Each structure stands twice: as structure tokens, then as C-alpha cells.
Amino acid sequence: MAIKRAEGAVQPGINWGRRFTIRIPGIHVSNSWPESIQGGLLTLATAAAAAPLFMRAFALPFEYAWALAALPLFWYYVSAWLFGEPFAPGWITPSIPLVLVFLGGYEPGVHAIQAMTALALTVSALFLVFAVTGLGGKFFSWVPAELRAGIILGSAIAAFNGEFTRHATMPKTLTVVWAVVFLLMFSVWVAKGKETNKTLRLAANMAMLIGFLVAAVVGPLAGEVKFAFSSQVILIPQFAAAVKAVNPFSVGWPSWNMFVSAFPLAVMVYVIVFGDLVLANTLLTEADRIRTDEKIIVDPTRTHYTLFFRNIGQILTIGPLIPMHGPIWTGVTVFLVEQYKQGRQRMDSIYSGILSWYWPAFILVFISPVVDFMRPILPVALSITLILTGFACAYIAMRMVNTPTGQGYALFIALLIVKFGPTWGLGVGIALFFLLLVQRKPMIPMPYDVEMKA
Fold it and tell me: Is the CB of residue 373 less than 8 Å from the CB of residue 227?
């Protein structure tokens, strides 16, 4: 039985390092079974979607890629358990298409692994610098909205380009899966129906998992997916061999040229992360207002430190993670917050939901039938992740800019990033911003923009 929290207090735990709090399940936090049942398979399916990335960019066999997809589960779990972050952690998902463009400039295998290590180390360094200085908020304000929109739109275009190419490998399966997921997540009819229909609301909240299961049905019927189940029940992933294949202590550290090439993209990744932080803080502030029985402490500096430790820990203990560790898994955070807002009887603490969501995935990793089931449809899981990322990034970017000049600028920068890489995109983006947008004074208005605002 977990320690009972006093009304209006912070969830009990062991404070350490001034900012951090350890919360041990069963002692400081009670388990929430509805979240455990849903979270186990969905977490594993989503985490396993990284396996095709490792296979493609790092030129690894499936057995290694599966182990590398499973090992980061530990670094997701420590976010709430060890550091006390009140968010459901995940990938820096919008960065994945841009990272794939970056890795495309290196030969698959050792060179790509070293390049990814350089990028992840640079991103980690940015987290640490902004944690120590507290300048994260000011840096975000320094980046113009139009340039931020261009970066996010570039991620959308890169995602769509990649998935339209992938569509040719599984045309029937991906067509049906994309249609189902888009319908559940973005249809105005579903959005209206789930206000009164609990089943439809649950289906919308589990859209990614449903898309995964649809692929398991449509794929074999279309002849595009073949399942092969082994007789064994327990599978021991090849953790040691997989780590040796990607760890910088084994394959070598990046060259300085790789760090230089990675820096512009690292800046873009930080811009994306800060947008996630704004969203996460907004969600938790609203939940804290409704749930007066628990005080949720949102600390951006703690979050920066946590992101530094998670990413640098991943590199030093395992190797680079292509999606990299981000502050929130947006869909799950929204889902958990909505359940949390229903009251203490539904979810005792926000930490109950977060810590309950992830732990079953640690067990499922070792169950052979689960692995055999997922293996042939992992490309579909990755496709769902990227196509949704592209769709979401597209509409977010277009809402950030409301003038024709700004919209044209954002699209141009996005295409530069995708076509020529982050260095050109960021460099030209800064220069072009000063030429087109920085001196927008009344005495020299842009006619189309003035007309639009009017």
C-alpha cells in the first residue's frame, strides 16, 4: 500500500539533488491498472517502431535492432521514477524526419552511428547549457515564429517524402492503416461523436494501437505481411552484442566535422523540444487547477537537467537513440491528464498513471510470441508514427504564421532543410529573415500582408 498523500500536498517521495524526487511504485505511488493494461502493449509497439530505423541507418540485423529498441525503456521510466518529472516521456518525434535526412548523408553503419552520436551529444549539451543558465525561455523567444514554422514544416515534408516512398513497399496495408488512423485522430465526425460515445472516445485515444492491429489483419490478407511464430515462449534479446555494435566506446567517437555538421540540426531539435515543453506545462497547469488534492510541481530547469541525463545516459550506457529522448509522449500525456482530471478515485496521482503506463513493456520484451507478432509489422508502426508526425507538424506550422510573406518564407525554409540539409536551411533562414521580415515597420509595409491583416 502506497503512502497516502495529504490533501493538497505534493506526492510523497525521496528528495535528492535539490530538484529531483524518487518515487518508488508500491511505496510512494500506487499502481493504476487501467493504464498498465493499455500502456504495456502500446509502449512496446511504439518503442519497437525504432527498430526499422536502426536496421536502415545503422545497418543492423533485426535481433540487434529489437534489443536497441527495448533498452531505452529504462530511460523513459526514470523520468518520473528517478527525477520526478510529471510528464509521460517519449521521443523527440518531430525531429525524426529531419534526423533521417541528416543521417542520409552518411554511409549506413559505423559512420551513421558516429554521426548520430555527435548529434545526440550536441543536443544533450544544449539541454545542459540551458539548464545551468536558465536561458531556455529567452532562446526560444529569440527564434522568430516564421523560422520555427519553417523548421517544423520541414519535418512534415521530410516525413511525407519518406512515407510516400515507403508506401510502394506495402501499398494496400499502409493505405488502409493510414485511413483508419487519420479517421480516428483527425476526423471532425469522430471528434464530434466521441463527446458522447465512450467507445469511440477510447478508440480515438488508442488510434495508434488500433492501426497496428489493423495492419496485422489487412497485411496478411493483402499478401504484404507474413507471420512466423517460433515454438519458444521466452526470448532473451541480444543486449550485449547490440550495445557493442553501436556504443561509441566500441565503434569510435565522432570526428569534429560531424559535430560541426550536427550543430544546426541540434539547434532545430531544441526549438522543437521547447515547443513540447510549452505544451506539457500548459497541460499540467490546467490539471493542477482542477485537481486541488495534489500539488504538481512543474520545473522547466529540472526538465532540462532530466533531458540531459536521459540522453547522455543513453549514449554512454547503450549508444545513440535515433529518435532521441524528449520531454513528453504527447498523445499519452494528453490521455493520462484527461483521466487524472476525473478525480482521485480514478487516478490517485499523476505519477500513478505515468509509472503504471510503462512497466508492463519491460515484461513483454521477453515474450517470444509478442516479438514474433510485432516483427513483420514494425515497418507499419514506424510508418504510423511518422505519417502522424508529418500531419501534426504540418498543421501546427501553418497555424504559427498568419501572413502570406511569413507562410511563403516558412515553406521555402522547409524545402531548403529537406533538400540541402539543416546547415543550409538554418543559415539561409536567418539571412532571409533579416532581408524579408525583421524590419516590418508601418512606413514600409508589405502590401499583401497589410491586406491580409486588415
Answer: yes
